[in-house]
Design goal:
By secondary structure, the protein is α/β, with parallel strands linked by helices. The chain folds into 3 domains: 131 residues, Alpha-Beta Complex (Conserved hypothetical protein from pyrococcus furiosus pfu- 392566-001, ParB domain); 64 residues; 49 residues, no CATH class. It has 13 helices and 8 strands. β7 and β8 form a beta hairpin. The N and C termini lie far apart (97 Å). One of its GO terms (cellular component) is chromosome. InterPro entries: Chromosome_partition/occlusion, HTH_ParB/Spo0J, ParB/RepB/Spo0J, ParB/Sulfiredoxin_sf, ParB_dimer_C, ParB_N. It holds the Pfam family ParB_C.
């Protein structure tokens, strides 16, 4: 590893808002290390990398080099032949991939030994990678939501704490995490860009997955704005509320009759209306546990 003086300003040149990360990340020197000794960050929230974009980046790297160093931690492993040293990437995976495409043998890095990929530092490594990607707008909506979800579920951060770390409002973080409630295939459409973030958020307004999918197909067919989806969802919710109230009223008017039948037959009785426009029709459900109970019920009805 070759030490390089006078280049860069440490993490602050990579992530201006890194003051939210604890422990505090301070200024460090920049070194050159062999590119084949750098391993990807397992906490990297980004999963999708545009091939054409990487090719353009590699051309730029061939011409100008890597202008911002990668952030890594040093890891030592014992082997039969002694101690092996490699570097765990924390931030800068896109630059690393571009450098590999460009055929660079060495890349500039900032080494942070206090961020080894173990224990509490797993969370910090995820935070650093997330912040860098968010600030560069490199993440698609699903990747961003999954990263927030990991900080929330796996590392116990509140939505407010996550929002402070990425310099966004709590509502933005909350809405992003809610996207994870969408069905898998719809999330994949959002990940690939086939579905917009606005349309995805609008679909969350539907509580019923069947209606959600019906509207999703209409969105893919074109011609339905996110505002129209929200309006349709709002109308659907009002109708559901009215239907529930109507069903409750129908059931309440049968309450006394249910009690009388239950007293007579000595078993629970339920009366369900069909919720037809005329309010007529329905069914009676008489519960029994054994054939002996059924015989007693039948005898009571026949007699």
């Amino acid at each position: 590893m070759k030490k390089l003086f006078g280049l860069g300003k440490g993490l602050n040149s990579l992530i201006p808002d890194a003051k939210h990360i604890t422990p505090e990340l301070k200024k460090d020197n920049v070194f050159y290390v062999e590119i084949n000794k750098i391993r990807p960050n397992p906490q990297q929230p980004r999963r999708d990398f545009d091939d054409e974009g990487l090719k353009e980046l590699s051309k730029s790297i061939r011409k100008y080099g890597i202008l911002q160093p990668l952030l890594v931690s040093k890891v030592e492993e014992e082997s039969s032949r002694g101690m092996n040293v490699y570097y765990q990437l924390i931030a800068g995976e896109r630059r690393l991939r571009g450098a590999k495409l460009a055929g660079l043998p060495n890349v500039p890095v900032i080494v942070r030994d206090d961020l080894s990929p173990e224990g509490e530092n797993k969370r910090i490594n995820l935070e650093v990678a997330l912040i860098e990607n968010v600030q560069r707008t490199d993440l698609n909506p699903v990747e961003e939501a999954e990263a927030y979800g990991r900080l929330f579920k796996d590392f116990g951060l509140t939505q407010k704490e996550i929002a402070e770390k990425v310099s966004k409002s709590r509502e933005v973080v909350a809405n992003a995490i809610r996207l994870l409630n969408l069905p898998q295939d719809i999330r994949e459409s959002l990940r690939s860009g086939k579905l917009s973030r606005a349309h995805a958020r609008a679909l969350l307004a539907f509580s019923d997955e069947k209606k959600q999918r019906e509207m999703y197909q209409q969105i893919l067919a074109g011609g339905v704005s996110s505002k129209e989806v929200e309006s349709i969802a709002s109308t659907s919710k009002r109708q559901e509320t009215r239907d529930k109230r109507q069903a409750k009223k129908q059931n309440q008017k049968f309450a006394e009759l249910e009690r009388n039948l239950a007293d007579t037959l000595k078993t629970p009785v339920l009366i369900h209306s069909t919720n037809s426009p005329t309010g007529e029709g329905g069914k009676i459900v008489i519960r029994f546990a054994t054939l002996q109970d059924l015989n007693k019920i039948a005898k009571s009805i026949i007699d």
